[in-house]
Amino acid sequence: MRIKEHPILNFNRGKEIHFRFSGKTMIGYEGETVAAALHANGVKVLGESIEKHRPRGFYCAIGNCSSCLMEVDGVPNVKTCVTKLKEGMSVEIQKGKGELK
Amino acid sequence: MIQTQLAIIGGGPAGLCAAISAAESGSKVLLIERNDTLGGQLVKQTHMFFGSEKQYASTRGIDIAKILLDKLEEHKDNITIMKDTTVLGIYEDGVITAMRDEDKYMKIKPEALIVATGASEKFLAFPNNDLPGIYGAGAVQTLMNVHGVKPGNKVLMVGAGNIGLIVSYQLMQAGVKVEAIIDAAPKIGGYLVHASKIRRMGVPIYTSYTVKEAIGSDALEKAIIWKLDEAWKPIAGSEISFDVDVMCVSVGLTPLNELLVMSGCEMQYIPELSGIVPMRNENYQTTVPHIFTAGDSCGVEEASSAMVEGYLAGLCASDHIGNRHPMYEEKKADFINQLEGLRSGPEAAHIRSGVEKSLRR
Amino acid sequence: MIEKTGIPSREQVMDVFPDVERINKGPVAVIECYKEIPCNPCTTSCKFNAIYIGDDINKRPDLSEEKCIGCGVCLSKCPGLAIMVVDGSKSSETVDITIPYEFLPLPKPGEIVDGLDRSGAFIAKVKIIKVLNPKSYDRTPLVTASVDRKYLYDFRNIRLEETL
Q1: DSSP 8-state assignment for residue A92
Q2: Per-residue pLDDT tens digits for C92-115
Q3: Model confidence pLDDT, tens digit, residues C53-105
Q4: Which has fewest Cβ within 10 Å: A11, A92, B53, B154?
Q5: Set of chain C residues whose Cβ sits within 8 Å of the Cβ of A8
Q6: Which residue from B60, B136, B149 is facing A59, i.e. has the nearest CB?
Q7: Closest CA relative to residue A65, chosen from A75, A57, A74
Q8: Looking at B209, B230, B249, which one is the last position of a domain?
Q9: Of B194, B222, B249, the domain-final residue
């Protein structure tokens, strides 16, 4: 799902970053957001709605809409569309509203 | 408390130009941006811009961002850039509060303020519109043009305004198939040159069609559209089904006006400017004298006009705090003239009417 | 109609085309800018003052067929990719048509590709004559194809088998 060749843009991807999503190790690149890295790994469902548990993906990609909230390194309600990927990050689908520990 | 002469909220095209123009007028500027990059939506615009040379016509948006950042750099003695910083509130005593890096809180007291917070994407109501795979057009641009990730394999574009048409073209450049572009309006809303360059790639444009429903279990698998009659009522039996894994919603933007609303400046709903916008004078000064505004946050328009509005607001806000540019009158007349030029054609009739309604003389 | 489909009518196309006599003399631009929009890089980029818009940047460009030499600079500068160059001076059977083409892969000279009309429909195989992509074109390459004269008013795009 990554663009290899583009007529206008050059993608100078940063170094590889390993992160975990739902127990699986995935590869992203430095500078990428969590949501973009997940999408590149074929993950479209980023969460579920609180009451009806309907699947949620991202929508705005600029931190406005809250559709991409996930639990990242144990912290709930992280806007994954504007949060940069870090080595060893653990990303989980959040159940419910999330609790501050 | 941080003291500054001029705080600018938003580092998109309007905010960047406001900062450059204010620094040229001799103001000490604090430019506040919530993301970790400046340039706003310019950083994903791979197409060449319209307008005239003064608005960098024929230059790609991504390169306009670079030009503006270089200009910003020339004025680095007068401009402090604060990234990863979200403004939380504007108070009656002129203090603004902000949060940096999600956990550091601060107070800022500027002598004048320019709100250039941009706009956010509108959404469309239809069954299953919450399925993953249904994205805003800007989100798709970010994904493919900033991160180099394809949003999917087959796309239905909803909205034939300039953004819908441009993003469709960019999707094809990224190697993604665009099955069709639909729009509820009976005519294409965007520039016809954009429509023609997509149509000649073989992408059909369905006007007077809207989304009936989206289908899919965990993510979008199918989109069904249907035709609207002259009263914009759906016609049963006119359904067309597309096997798509992405639906791109591009049904317009609405001004991000929360900070302006809480600052107490007079706001008005002006549909031609796509939402609730601040009343202002020709200097882009709101009814709260030390607060100015520019760009989509005071009315959704093209990036070209956002840049000119930014230059004008930076010039006038500086004058308001006593930093009058030596060529203030000439510059102001030029910016106003540029805006009039951009807004004088038949495609901008609604903008002219909206701007007229928003003016407090 | 173009406002609904994005496809200009035959009348609209004919209206912006220079006449065949002029085309047969040598390369000349065809500007398909059918509606007033605030835009003027075609006129500012033309070294021969062959394109006139005037003070109101919303006016449609007016081409001087005498001054235009068909250099193609405006093709890569037009943000709407609305301009092409036609040249009927090379052969009585074919006409060379140059279009901006911002997709990968680019065709190669000598390659036979699909010629498409303004709706993206296939009209005929065409032969690529020239592909120019210098830095000054800023990533808007110009592709010239040799097209059967009967498709002069139809040809507007190409399709490569392996287009991404």
Answers
A1: E
A2: 999 999 999 999 999 999 999 999
A3: 999 999 999 999 999 999 999 999 999 999 999 999 999 999 999 999 999 99
A4: B53
A5: 102, 139
A6: B136
A7: A57
A8: B249
A9: B249
